[in-house]
Amino acid sequence: MEETIRPLPYFSKREKQIIELSAEGLSDSEISEEMSIAVRTVENLRQNVLEKTNYENIIQLINECKKQSVI
User: Can you give the CATH number for the domain in which 41 is found?
Assistant: First the structure.
């Protein structure tokens, strides 16, 4: 059975950074410190990328980003 590639949308610099740091295993508070933004902003950015891509969780999105060499 052939796997269908789901095209990913354009990610802003901050959205991509959230995905990359999440893939490294950083918590929301660690990402917040790394990016010098509020934890709530991290949560909002993560929710935005999930809504943009229709993935249920960040792990699914990270896996697809790796498959498509986005990160």
Answer: 1.10.10.10
